[in-house]
């Protein structure tokens, strides 16, 4: 038997321990095989001839039912999936309750109470910043791992994976908006000019300078901003080297601050800052900085530190919104508020990252996984439910009945959004996602077994 050229694996290495000639024992040290040690299954070793070792080693095991399948489909960071859902819930509440904000705020005769309620309403927009921060954090981490493993970035494969995740639902919903919804929703209108901008992922620019369209597709302007980030970020990292992420991210914050100052000087309205990618890079930059910092950190945060980070992330923007009001987003103080809000998002992200003390509910993790569909469908669900409630039910009289009426609408709209997103993910999005495995980054110059550390190919089968 030919002796492996792989280095001697240590107790924390990724290879298999050395064995007598012709056999390799079932002793696993790599994280990918930890599940084999957690079961009582017995395995035997099948030695594969040297001529047939041009394939990676395979672990063949009995699945044991749905439990192993759910583990395989589980996201690598369930705590971030949960955070993604809470970010969506902020956006949903902001869009549903926003139209009632003035009426609700006006219920209190105490100016301080009114300002508190107004700050809570205005903070819903920051759910979008949390999405931006999370996307940047995860994408930067993926690119860093690929560069460390391969010494290069496969940009075309990265973009193909992003397209399989974003394009089907995005373009499918736009088709629904153009061809079906005008016959269902009386106020639905996406003009040709806006449609072209959405199709070309330039919706953020037209919304920044011409306002948002009267369409359920209006929130998708943020997808355009994220697609621009997906297209430019790996190119910049490949050109400048991922080791320069920190100065690049700090440069993005400086650029956004300069652009916001210019927009304010020109006297343009809020969308010119909020929907302007160049003026709204702060959460993207903070997400990238968090990714770099956590990769260089060897230990996790203690529970006390996590609580302080969470309190800072939630309390600071609420305090500023209480003091400044809605002008924090588009007034002179926006120069300071946007980077502070981005830091708050980063602080919340750090507070939950790798948190293992609590149990992550499966349903919450799942809702985080389908949060893209939740975001796409939520405005449509809100309008459908509100239209049905108004048409079918009598107008409520009295404050308590109005509150119950509104809460009922919100609950039904959230349920409809969730059901639609679940169906979309299962039957429309997942078939496309299966093709992502075809675009994993590889080293074309190396055989497959060398990319796995030079270990021989072994198939382990249950006895």
Describe this structure in words.
By secondary structure, this protein is an all-alpha fold. It has 2 domains: 1-54 and 452-463, no CATH class; 76-439, no CATH class. It has helices spanning 34-37, 66-73, 78-97, 101-105, 111-122, 126-150, 155-179, 192-199, 203-210, 221-240, 245-266, 271-274, 282-295, 303-324, 327-330, 334-352, 362-369, 371-392, 399-433, 448-451; strands at residues 43-47, 58-59, 458-462. A 3-stranded mixed sheet has the order 1-3-2, with no helix packed on it. Helix 6 packs across helix 13 and helix 11 (245-266) runs antiparallel to helix 13. The longest helix has 35 residues, at 399-433. The radius of gyration is 26 Å and the shape is globular. The two termini are 24 Å apart. 31% of the residues are buried. Residues 1-72 and 446-463 have low confidence and may be disordered.
Short description:
This protein is mostly helical. It folds into two domains: about 70 residues, no CATH class; about 375 residues, no CATH class. It has 20 helices and three strands.
In terms of topology, how is this protein built?
Layout: H1 34-37, E1 43-47, E2 58-59, H2 66-73, H3 78-97, H4 101-105, H5 111-122, H6 126-150, H7 155-179, H8 192-199, H9 203-210, H10 221-240, H11 245-266, H12 271-274, H13 282-295, H14 303-324, H15 327-330, H16 334-352, H17 362-369, H18 371-392, H19 399-433, H20 448-451, E3 458-462
Parallel strand pairs: 2-3
Antiparallel strand pairs: 1-3
Helix pairs in contact: 3-6, 3-17, 3-18, 5-14, 6-10, 6-13, 6-16, 7-10, 7-18, 7-19, 8-9, 9-10, 11-13, 11-16, 13-16, 14-16, 18-19
